Structures are given as structure tokens and as C-alpha cells.
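Hi support team,

I've been running sequence recovery on a batch of backbones for a student project. Most finish fine, but this one hangs at about 90% for roughly twenty minutes before it completes. I'm not sure whether the input is malformed or the queue is just slow. I've pasted the C-alpha cells below so you can try to reproduce it. Let me know if you need the job ID as well.

Thanks,
M.K.
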């Protein structure tokens, strides 16, 4: 709320009204829209505030008025948004995507809701500053850098990415890197031949061409190029955002582009004998002219980024595009010239053809699902150490192991393939897992599944070794071609087989995970997996959120006592914010 206007016969009554309103706003239960929908209200008129009534009475009036405005709200893209009393955005990222798109197209920002939906936006701000502000605000959302990946991906699909990249100054590169990883990753030593993990083929066209041309402009050693390469690697696999080896992959992508005969990427404009980028470059206390927020954005762990570094180890090219003023209340005749769209040409070239980029599956409205409880497995998998497992197996993380497992559970329980929840999960499960796919399940998983020693090792004629628990029911590790297993599986009782096991590595992982969540469900919630998963609900999927809405009658004390319906929030291995909601329907159920 920006401004409160109270009128009364005396100053004492105004003060009393202010106290009542403050208490009412603290206690009011405002509607919680699934999917992270953002509601912006132009004016909240509450009528007469009676001084002799309690704050609870006023809070009910606030709730009722907000609900009325929420029902009448129009989307920010609507032609009637400028005159509406309330507008909404589909999620917390959409205001910044729309802002950057309008800036790139030279459209005015004179509607009343822009300054309320984009913190820090003010009249007279230049176009470049406003674009960097959009990126900084995207980093402050709960998805953090996954939101920045979505922002870049959508602007690229709309052909409006070039103005944003052109607005980034050389100081912004180290600040973005530190906001992502907490430090400026040093460039790894070159390898000959280049490692497959960082090959440029992991970045699909035409984003690879855009990356090559902007890296040519900035220099392959510029921190902005490192940030853009990391974003490009996460475009089709958003869960890579949290991968610990992402900086190394991004550096190798830039190295592969630089080694390509068609790339013509310059080396960093540094003295010949100067050392490569250091993890912690010194910072300068002088004013750098950055938009406040890029250097101190996103998560609390990196709030120390309060100023842009001024290191000689960072290249300092000229701005790729000139800054232009953004008038929030300007007349139509004073619009800025439309910015060049993002094309495969070098920065600065013009073009208007948007690129086709695979978008994440989203639902326009809440769609019914028969497996609303499937996402109750998310906190369970977190407790079993799935994040630790994916960090130790980056190749498997890229292949969508969590989505594959959730889809496997749904299919085993008979969920139809047309269910919207399966539509979300099929994004990362299009291709089968390669064989072999060796793995070692973490210690937390072994404890959660109740695996007991002594472990048993089964050796196949092909050289593959599979470690099981003492009862030879739960597979815990697999390796191929006689490779040694890590402790404690290196001292297992070994049994040689004359034939292969009926499961490949992918089936072994799915079998182990299914046994684990089944046992944990019975131990914590005292119910079977089918009873937990197959409960009807409505799914709302946005680019950054997955929300499941249940009827209030679906509340189960067993699930609540086990903590399985506590909102997980941001889940890195799904690259989405997961939330559960219980709502009364029209019948009060």
C-alpha cells in the first residue's frame, strides 16, 4: 500500500482510524491465489470506519473488498487494464517479462500499475536502467536464477533479448556471477580435447548463435558471457540452475565456441601475462552506475554483493546499445524508437523475427487431476537425500530422474496419460535412460529405506556389479565393467551370477525409489502409497509454480501429522515452486 487517506472530524479520530486499519490489515486473510498470481489494486475504498468497532470487523470488510476486486481484475495485457481498478499477473515473474518486452519494443509504460508491480521503477529512468531493474527484480523472486533463465528464454522467444543483453554493463557480469554462486568462478584449465560435459551442443540453436555473437562482443572471458552461457545451459533443463558444476560447464561451452572455426571469439582484452579471472576479485568502493539490486539480489546468502567489482581482470567493452529514456507518463508521440529484436545477427543488427523456444507446460486455469497427492512425495524425496544424489550424479540429473520417478509412480497407480500432472512431468522424460547408468544412493536414502548391513554385491557376467541390502530386496548401487564401488559397498559379500539380472540401471533406481517412498509413507502416514497419491485436486501450472488445490474435505490428519502437506517452496530439482492449498468450494465442502 502506497498511500492511505483518512478523513474525520478530529485528529484523534484520524489516529483511531489509522490504528484500526493497521490492525485490520495485519489480521485480514487475503485470498491466496494458486500459481503465485500477483494482484495489483489501484484503490481500496473501505467506506466509513466506525471508531467504536473492533479491528476484526474492519478486517472482514478488507477481505470482502479484496475478494470483490480480485473477481473483477483483468489481466495486465488487457486493453482495459489502464482503466481497471485491479489487474493481475499470472505469476510473480510476468511483470518483469512484460516490462522488458515493452521496453524492447519501445512501448510506453504510462499505465498506473507499472510502478506498483515493478519496485524501483520511476519516471525518467533510462531504458537500459529499467531493463537491468527488470532482471534484478526477477532475481529477487522465490525461483531466483531460475526466474532469470525463464526471463531470458521468453525474451529470446519473443525476439526481444538483444536490448536486455545490450543493457548489461561490464560491472554487471561479476555481480550476476556472485549472486548466482556466491563468488566469481575461475576459468578451469583448458583440456585437449574439450570435455563432452561442456560441449556447445548442449545449447540448442538459435540461442547458441546468440550466445556466440554476444560472447564475441563482450569477449569469451567476460563474466557476462559466463552468466549468459550458464543461462543458455539451463534453458531446456531448468534443474541445472542448482548444479554445482554449472560454472565449469559454462566455461567449457565458451571454450568450445572460441575453438570453433566459425565462432571468431576474441580472447579477453587483458594484458598478455595477466592471470585469469580470480574467484574473489577486489571490489572498488566507487560508484559504478549499476542499477541497485543486481549486485545484492536473490537469496540472503549472497546479500554481501553490495557494489560492482572494478577488477582489471574483467573486460570493459562499450555498451552494445545506447540508453534511451523511459517515460512512465509520456504522450504517445514521445515514444522511443523500437529496439532491435533479438536475431541471429550480431548485436546491434536489426530484425523482428521471434525465435521458437520450447516453453514449459502451463495451464490457463485450474485443471482437475486424479493424482493431486503425487506432489506429497516431494518433501519425502528431499528427506531421502535426492538433492545430494543429483549433485553427485550430474549426468543423471540432466536426464530428469526425479520427473521420471514421479511419472513412474503415477503410471504404476493407473493415472491416465491425459492427466495434466503427467503433462508437466513428461517434459524431461521423452527419451529412455542410456545404459549403463551407474549410481550410488546416498546414506540418507539407505537409512530412510531401512537398508541393513551386511550389504550384498551381485556380479553379472557382463562385469556389472549391483549392491543390495542384506535381504537382497533394495538395490543401493550399480557399477559397470568391474569398476570399484565406494565404501561401504567395496567390502560386500559377493555373489557371481551366470546370467544378467532382469533390471537395467534405470529400473533399479526406480525400484529402489518406489520401495523407499512406500516404506516411508507407511511409517510416517500409516497409509499405502495408493491412498496417499490418488486424491483428487486441481492443478495450476505456471512457468515458475506448481500448485495443487484440494477441497477442504480432503484434509487428512495423518498427512498433516507427517508434515507431507507442508509447502516445500522452491524445489531445485524440479525448478519450480511447489505449493498446496485447501479451499472451500461453492458447496462448502
Amino acid at each position: 500500500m502506497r498511500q492511505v487517506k483518512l478523513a474525520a472530524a478530529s485528529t484523534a479520530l484520524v489516529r483511531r482510524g489509522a490504528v484500526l486499519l493497521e490492525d485490520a490489515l495485519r489480521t485480514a486473510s487475503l485470498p491466496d491465489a494458486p500459481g503465485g498470481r500477483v494482484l495489483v489494486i489501484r484503490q481500496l475504498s473501505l467506506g466509513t470506519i466506525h471508531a467504536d468497532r473492533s479491528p476484526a470487523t474492519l478486517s472482514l470488510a478488507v477481505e470482502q473488498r479484496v475478494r470483490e476486486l480480485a473477481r473483477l481484475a483483468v489481466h495486465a495485457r488487457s486493453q482495459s487494464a489502464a482503466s481497471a481498478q485491479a489487474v493481475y499477473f499470472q505469476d510473480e515473474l510476468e511483470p518483469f517479462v512484460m516490462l522488458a518486452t515493452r521496453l524492447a519494443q519501445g512501448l510506453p509504460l504510462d499505465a498506473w500499475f507499472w510502478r506498483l508491480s515493478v519496485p524501483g521503477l520511476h519516471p525518467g529512468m533510462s531504458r537500459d536502467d529499467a531493463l537491468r531493474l527488470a532482471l534484478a527484480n526477477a532475481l529477487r523472486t522465490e525461483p531466483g536464477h531460475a526466474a532469470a533463465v525463464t526471463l531470458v528464454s521468453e525474451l529470446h522467444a519473443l525476439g526481444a533479448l538483444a536490448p536486455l543483453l545490450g543493457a548489461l554493463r561490464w560491472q554487471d557480469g561479476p555481480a550476476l556471477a556472485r549472486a548466482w554462486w556466491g563468488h566469481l568462478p575461475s576459468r578451469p584449465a583448458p583440456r585437449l580435447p574439450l570435455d563432452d560435459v561442456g560441449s556447445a551442443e548442449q545449447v540448442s540453436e538459435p540461442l547458441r548463435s546468440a550466445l556466440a555473437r554476444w560472447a564475441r562482443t563482450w569477449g569469451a572471458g567476460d563474466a557476462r558471457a559466463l552468466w549468459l552461457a550458464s543461462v543458455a545451459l539451463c534453458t531446456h533443463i531448468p534443474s541445472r540452475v542448482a548444479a554445482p558444476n554449472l560454472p565449469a560447464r559454462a566455461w567449457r561451452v565458451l571454450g568450445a565456441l572460441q575453438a570453433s572455426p566459425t565462432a571468431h571469439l576474441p580472447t579477453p582484452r587483458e594484458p598478455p601475462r595477466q592471470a585469469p579471472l580470480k574467484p574473489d576479485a577486489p571490489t572498488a568502493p566507487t560508484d559504478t552506475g549499476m542499477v541497485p539490486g543486481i549486485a545484492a539480489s536473490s537469496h540472503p546468502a549472497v546479500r554481501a554483493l553490495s557494489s560492482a567489482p572494478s577488477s582489471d581482470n574483467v573486460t570493459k567493452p562499450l555498451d552494445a546499445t545506447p540508453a534511451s529514456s523511459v517515460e512512465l507518463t509520456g504522450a504517445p508521440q514521445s515514444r522511443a524508437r523500437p529496439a532491435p529484436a533479438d536475431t541471429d545477427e550480431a548485436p546491434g543488427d536489426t530484425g523482428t523475427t521471434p525465435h521458437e523456444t520450447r516453453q514449459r507446460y502451463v495451464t490457463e486455469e485450474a485443471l482437475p487431476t486424479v493424482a493431486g497427492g503425487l506432489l506429497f512425495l516431494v518433501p519425502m524425496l528431499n528427506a531421502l537425500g535426492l538433492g545430494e544424489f543429483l549433485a553427485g550424479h550430474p549426468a543423471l540429473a540432466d536426464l530428469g530422474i526425479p520427473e521420471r520417478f514421479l511419472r513412474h509412480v503415477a503410471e504404476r497407480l493407473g493415472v491416465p496419460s491425459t492427466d495434466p500432472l503427467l503433462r508437466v512431468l513428461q517434459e524431461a522424460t521423452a527419451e529412455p535412460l542410456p545404459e549403463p547408468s551407474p549410481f550410488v544412493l546416498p546414506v540418507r536414502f539407505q537409512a530412510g529405506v531401512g537398508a541393513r548391513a551386511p550389504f550384498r554385491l551381485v556380479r553379472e557376467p557382463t562385469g556389472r556389479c549391483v549392491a543390495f541390502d542384506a535381504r537382497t530386496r533394495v538395490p543401493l548401487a550399480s557399477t559397470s565393467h568391474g569398476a570399484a564401488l565406494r565404501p561401504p559397498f567395496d567390502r560386500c559379500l559377493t555373489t557371481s551370477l551366470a546370467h544378467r539380472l532382469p533390471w537395467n540401471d534405470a529400473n533399479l533406481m526406480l525400484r529402489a525409489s518406489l520401495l523407499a517412498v512406500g516404506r516411508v509413507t507407511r511409517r510416517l502416514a500409516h497409509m499405502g502409497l495408493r491412498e496417499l497419491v490418488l486424491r483428487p485436486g486441481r492443478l495450476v501450472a505456471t512457468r515458475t509454480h506448481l500448485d495443487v488445490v484440494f477441497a477442504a474435505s480432503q484434509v487428512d490428519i495423518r498427512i498433516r501429522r507427517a508434515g507431507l502437506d507442508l509447502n516445500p517452496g522452491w524445489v531445485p530439482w524440479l525448478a519450480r515452486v511447489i505449493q498446496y492449498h485447501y479451499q472451500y468450494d461453492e458447496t462448502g465442502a
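--
Follow-up from support: It reproduced on our side and the slowdown came from queue contention, not your input. The chain has 20 helices and 13 strands. No action needed from you.
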